[in-house]
Design goal:
Elements lengths: L1 E5 L12 E4 L9 E9 L3 H9 L6 E2 L3 E9 L11 E5 L11 E5 L3 E3 L6 H5 L2 H14 L9 E5 L4 H13 L3 E5 L3 H10 L3 E3 L5 H7 L7 E4 L3 H11 L7
Parallel strand pairs: 9-10, 9-12, 10-11
Antiparallel strand pairs: 1-2, 1-4, 3-5, 3-7, 5-6, 6-8
Helix pairs in contact: 3-4, 6-7
Length: 239
């Protein structure tokens, strides 16, 4: 089958940084699905993995994918052939940048019918990160009257985090963005307010009349913002 991968760490300007090659068909483990990949997406982690691969046989890159189940392992119970699915794969297995991929059914979800394959493929890593950040790490209470500050609201994780927080909690969501188009993007996604992170964030919050946020998700340039975030946060808050 056709695949895209790498044979080792190279700058992306190197013609051999990404190569197309013929790969062996995936071998199914008992809980695996064999997926005909219809769409994939790229995330920062993809470039990090590519730059860390050691010279060897070509390895298939890629995490996020959406596609159709065309085969199942002997112990699969959650899906069947013909199901449309989406998922983020595993770092220790061949990636999604191929015609077909074997993936454990326990990390797979059913593709929302309202989304195209490309739209669904754009979701897994960003959505998992946003969900785990808010509920598993910050342990946000869905019913509390508090504020969530999202630094970098227009990025991949920020865009999903705004929507999850607005759909599933009562938190007031304040995003940061520095350009008119990214400010509007955050508002369109449901942010209650947007402030400029090109200046000290604590000052921007105060000038906007926003209360100290209990939850702060710093998704970009954390080292540069951290002192201001420490000043901005509510007592006993979480960054």
């Amino acid at each position: 089958m056709k695949a895209i991968g790498t044979t080792g760490p190279r700058p992306v300007s190197d013609p051999a940084a990404l190569i197309a090659f013929e790969a062996a068909e995936p071998e199914l483990r008992p809980r695996d699905l064999l997926v005909a990949v219809k769409a994939v997406s790229l995330n920062p982690v993809d470039t990090k993995v590519r730059s860390s691969r050691q010279p060897d046989q070509p390895s298939i890159l890629g995490y996020d994918a959406a596609g159709v189940v065309i085969g199942v392992g002997a112990e699969v119970s959650l899906f069947k052939v013909g199901d449309e699915v989406f998922y983020a794969g595993q770092i220790d297995r061949p990636g999604s940048n191929a015609e077909r991929q074997a993936v454990d059914e326990r990390i797979v979800g059913r593709k929302p019918q309202s989304l195209t394959y490309a739209e669904a493929a754009a979701l897994p890593l960003t959505a998992i990160t946003a969900w785990e950040l808010l509920f598993d790490r910050m342990k946000a209470d869905r019913d509390e009257d508090e504020s969530l500050l999202i630094v970098g609201g227009a990025g991949g994780v920020g865009s999903i985090l705004i929507q999850i927080a607005k759909a599933m909690t009562k938190l007031r969501v304040v995003a940061t963005a520095s350009r008119p188009e990214t400010r509007q993007w955050c508002l369109d996604l449901g942010a209650d307010a947007v402030i400029d992170h090109a200046r000290p964030i604590d000052e921007a919050l105060t000038e906007a009349g926003e209360r100290a946020p209990k939850y702060i998700a710093s998704l970009t340039h954390t080292a540069g913002h951290f002192e201001a975030l420490a000043r901005a946060g509510a007592p006993q808050g979480v960054i």
